[in-house]
Design goal:
By secondary structure, this protein is an alpha/beta fold. The chain has helices at about 15-25, 45-50, 65-75, 95-100, 125-140, 140-145, 160-165, 180-185, 205-210, 210-225, 230-235, and strands at about 5-10, 35-40, 55-60, 80, 85-90, 105-115, 160, 190-200. The chain is built from eleven helices and eight strands. The longest helix is centred in the middle third of the chain and has 18 residues, at about 125-140.
Length: about 240
């Protein structure tokens, strides 16, 4: 069996990190290591991570891409798994990842993201996000779609072999859609697979925007990204809704 390093980029995630780390502590089989890579939190994020006994890394540059790259540099597992602090995973996450990558024709993968909160489950948004993994590459990169490209996004808990990650150059230093950009590089090394298992992500962004506005923003950003618009421009439509 391979060793899986779970990398969690954080910035002011005290409201959800504790639950996520408790869940990771009961995974069966257990991950090789869990690294929390912090971008300068001003809340209790670091204290929660330290209390949980996981590896805590201070990243000088705030942003998911540099934080995840920093975690990948420190990680010692053969497989890298990138997890958002507000996303909950199945108990057999490690086994599901190892089984997927046991197929040497697969370069990376992610899961089906079900978006939910304390009051509701966002079935419509979740369905659209599921379909987007397929229709976006088919629409914008059809030649790569038929070679196995699927576009994964942050809430889908992306994973790949550490060797492939670095041979592709890691995450590009962009403020948004870094996982989708990595998929475009990883597909040169093998297929990208959406595993038929569910992870649950917080609906805090949809709750803040409203379901209709959120779906419209996701469509708009995805369409412009597919046409090659800079992620730095697209970021202005994707406000940070975490506490400061």
């Amino acid at each position: 069996m391979c060793s899986v390093s779970i990398i969690i980029p954080t910035l002011n995630e005290a409201s959800c990190l504790g639950r996520t780390l408790r869940q990771l502590s009961i995974l069966n089989p257990a991950p090789w290591e869990v690294l929390v890579v912090d971008g300068g939190s001003s809340d209790e994020t670091l204290a929660i991570a330290q209390l949980a006994g996981v590896n805590v890394v201070d990243c000088q540059q705030c942003g998911r891409s540099p934080q995840m790259n920093q975690g990948a540099k420190i990680a010692t597992g053969e497989i890298l798994c990138f997890l958002h602090a507000d996303t909950y995973v199945p108990d057999d996450l490690v086994a599901a990842i190892e089984t997927t990558l046991a197929d040497k024709t697969v370069a990376g993968g992610g899961f089906i993201s079900l978006m939910a909160g304390s009051q509701t489950t966002r079935w419509g948004v979740s369905l659209h996000n599921y379909l987007k993994t397929y229709y976006a590459p088919l629409l914008f990169r059809p030649h790569l779609f038929f070679k196995g490209l699927r576009l994964l996004f942050g809430d889908q808990v992306m994973f790949c072999r550490r060797a492939d990650f670095w041979e592709c150059g890691g995450f590009d230093d962009v403020p948004i859609l870094e996982e989708a950009d990595l998929c475009l590089k990883l597909v040169r090394r093998g297929k990208i697979r959406q595993v038929n298992r569910v992870v649950q992500s917080s609906d805090r962004r949809v709750a803040h925007w409203g379901a209709l506005k959120a779906t419209g923003i996701y469509l708009y950003i995805g369409f412009l990204w597919g046409l090659g618009v800079s992620p730095n421009y697209l970021k202005k439509f994707y406000e940070d809704i975490r506490s400061n």
